[in-house]
Amino acid sequence: MNVHEYQAKQIFAKYGVPTPKGIMALSVAEAVTAAETLGGPIWVVKAQIHAGGRGLGGGVKLAKSLEEVEQLANEILGMTLVTHQTGPEGKLVQKLYIEDGADIKDEFYLSVVLDRKREMPIIMASTEGGMEIETVAEESPEKIVVVPVDPAIGFQGFHGRELAFGLGITDKDEQKNIISFAEKLFKLYMENDAEMIEINPLVRTGSGEFLALDGKMGFDNSALKRNPDIARMRDLSEEDPDEVEAAKYGLSYVALDGEIGCMVNGAGLAMGTMDTINHMGGTPANFLDVGGSANAETVAKGFEIILKNPNVKAIFVNIFGGIVRCDRIANGIIEATKITDVNVPVVVRLDGTNAPEAAEILKGANISNLIVASNLGDGAAKAVAAAKGE
Predict the structure, then answer these.
(1) What's the CA gap between 316 and 287, in Å, rounded?
(2) Are 297 and 247 in contact (CB under 8 A)?
(3) CA–CA separation, 137 vs 121, rounded Å?
(4) 249 in catalytic set
(5) pLDDT, tens digit, for every residue of 173-185?
(6) pTM of the predicted model, to two decimals?
(7) How far is CA 288 from CA 59, 222, 249, 317, 333, in A?
């Protein structure tokens, strides 16, 4: 789950992570009032969407008067902001964040993320603040500082010193400031089941203080129940409506760009199914894990969500019957075709518990666009052929 910048800065404040003062606004009038409250003389008007690259897309602008705040708020609020992370369709700006200007001496990049290879969090930093970290990694990898932190011992002084030295910070007071900043950030990360915290840019002011000029956070969805304050920050309007609807039925759904809809039980099998479709010359239209308790209702809802994508030319149902029996899934598929108008070929591969019984059920269903496959490779090949109209 992601949060907006203004929400990230509310969380920063709880941990004593320094940020400029700011106020969220839902209208142009609220934006002007916020600027008056902050006092100025310089303000930053920021679009609030769940995506990076807002500045390059025209969603972050500097105002030097209340009139400019009003003008910029009018321009940004309600615009469809397109960035490299939103895709060409962009995102509608429904909230603004009005923030005090800052005395910027230098800009850095700072984040805490999980390194799966090291199997522990890392603090990642760079002197190239304001740039995409992917670009820095590609063009100047030597400018990226990586400090692994084993959760068993937590953040220690030597971690902070390694970070400060890596960023070339030599002033003793500034070293203390950046070490304290990183320690608070790591504590926030661990205590809230965060997956990623990114500050870009982190700025050093003329007085040697460090401020989080931006804030981007992502949290583990599975841990939201033990982090209710974080869960309450969820903004469903920023999420894919099909993914939100799928979650209500216990389905894990992610839209993709292909033409073959996938309905699979188990994330690993789902990934393997998508890989096999690609290997056979097709492209998956989605990731859809129906889990271990699939029934007619969830299968029907899965078909409905998949078929909302106009690019889908065929559906591949690939189920391994372990927790759920194959005959139950077969009956669920038949019932689902009665509930939902499935107007594309459906290739079904069922294996595991009661697979022979399931095969007989499907053969006797007499559904014209239902194609039974014998194994994963056969099913993927038939789905690709069906999508091509062969």
Answers:
(1) 11
(2) no
(3) 18
(4) no
(5) 999 999 999 999 9
(6) 0.79
(7) 33, 17, 12, 10, 15
Is 6 among the catalytic positions? no
Catalytic residue among 97, 109, 249, 253: 109
* Domain end (from 101, 136, 157): 101
User: CB neighbours of 331 closer than 8 A, spacing ≥ 6?
Assistant: 296, 361
Alpha-carbon distance of 35 to 98, in angstroms, equals: 6
Annotate 353-367 with b (16+ C-beta within 10 A) or e (fewer): bbbebbbebbeebee
Q: How far is CA 65 from CA 37, 62, 249, 267, 282, in A?
A: 13, 9, 50, 52, 55
- Candidates 128, 198, 238, 259; catalytic one: 198
Query: 10-residue block means of pLDDT along the chain (390 residues)?
Result: 96 97 97 94 95 87 96 96 85 95 94 95 93 85 94 96 96 96 97 96 94 95 93 88 83 92 91 96 94 74 90 93 80 83 90 87 82 92 92
C-alpha Rg value of the chain to the nearest Å: 25
Tokens of residue 223, six digits: 């841990």
Q: How far is CA 205 from CA 110, 132, 166, 210, 282, in A?
A: 16, 21, 19, 6, 53
Domain span at residue 298 reads 241-387
Cβ atoms of 205 and 105 within 8 Å: the answer is: yes
Q: Please answer whether residues 164 and 179 qualify as being in contact, where contact means their C-beta atoms are separated by less than 8 angstroms.
A: yes
pLDDT in tens, 145-164: 999 999 999 999 999 999 99
228 in the same domain as 336:
no
Q: Which CATH number do you get for residue 252?
A: 3.40.50.261
Reported as type and span, the H/E element at residue 231 is helix 228-231
